[in-house]
Amino acid sequence: MVGKKALLPDYPTLLVIAGPTAVGKTSVAIEVALHFGCEIISADSRQFYRELRIGTATPSIQQLASVQHHFIGNLSLAEDYNVSRYEQEVLSILPDLFVKGQIVVMTGGSGLYIKAVCEGIDVLPDADLLLRESLQFKLESEGLASLRGMLQKLDPEYYQIVDLANPNRIIRALEVCLATGKPYSVFRKHKPAQRDFRIIKIGLDLPREELHHNINNRVDQMVSEGLEQEARDFYHLRHLNALNTVGYRELFGYFDGNCALPDAIEKIKTNTRRYARRQLTWFHKDKEFIWCRPEAEEVILAVEAALEE
């Protein structure tokens, strides 16, 4: 299937290939991009940072050389970045990419970044710095569980999909809830922006046991490739949001003497499995996704069927 002549659309098409971590998005996206003769835009917010390679499962040099990739290693850890800037930058390069070919592949597991490109970002109130400071103090004095409890009461809908291990997202949601008296989720229900390109969304998934096996193996591989040293190299920057993430956060706890190394590695596996479940919850809420196993031939068949509709 991958070797046969591609059925190309007559209208610019953004092909989204999404799914949980360790499901096999990178290899499938590369095969699909080679089949359609197109380029790839990364929608993995952790892979934006050039300093982080092992803990973010950045594509290998060989994989990056096989297809032109965008938004991988394009930032430094010290740079401020957000989903709004990502949306603007992706939309700015898409016209040129569509000139090269009618299909562009976007792949990754960062649902908010994918949604921003497909539908536009949400219009949210600006942050109240004093309110943020008080919430930050509550986090430091009472712990993340306290903020989770607040969010569950103020916005149970958003509580079901937010990364409960990410204090920044929880604090941001609480800022909006407390500043406006309305649930954060209300401000996220906007009318999708109109795009001048077609969007086809493919979701990749595996049976839970198989996905968990992949996750555990990937963590073991990261450790063997030097994840501990990579985390040590950036331990002094642990306050940065880019490092407040699974894989680094647990090792920082080990460096602080809070646990032994085997315990930290087991926590990485557990937290990665939890993160994968949250990713699937996010993507399954979007009924436009066509779900496939992580096999390039199956994805290509699904895409061609969608193009013929």
Shape: globular
How far is it from the N-terminal to the C-terminal residue, by CA? 20 Å
Helix and strand composition category: alpha/beta
Specify Rg, calculated over alpha carbons: 20 Å
Question: Count the helices. How many?
Answer: 14
CATH topology of the largest domain: Rossmann fold
Number of domains: 2
Q: Whole-number average pLDDT? A: 92
CATH class category of the largest domain: Alpha Beta
**CATH H-tier superfamily of the largest domain:** P-loop containing nucleotide triphosphate hydrolases
* N to C succession of SSEs: EHEHEHEHHHHHHEHHHHEH
Estimate the helix proportion, in percent: 40-55%
Strand order of the largest sheet: 3-2-4-1-5-6
Q: Which parts are unreliable, with pLDDT below 50 for 5 consecutive residues or more?
A: none
Largest sheet: 6 strands, parallel
**Percentage of residues in strands:** 5-15%
The count of β-strands is 6
Describe the protein.
The chain has 309 residues and is an alpha/beta fold. The protein has two domains: 13-121 and 191-308, 3-Layer(aba) Sandwich (Rossmann fold); 129-187, Orthogonal Bundle (Histone, subunit A), CATH 1.10.20. It has helices spanning 25-36, 61-66, 83-100, 111-119, 129-142, 144-154, 156-159, 167-180, 184-187, 208-225, 227-233, 249-255, 261-284, 296-308; strands at 13-18, 40-42, 69-70, 103-108, 198-204, 289-292. The chain has a six-stranded parallel beta sheet, sandwiched between helices. Strand 2, helix 2 and strand 3 form a beta-alpha-beta unit. Helix 5 packs across helix 6 (144-154). The relative contact order is 0.18. The mean pLDDT is 92.
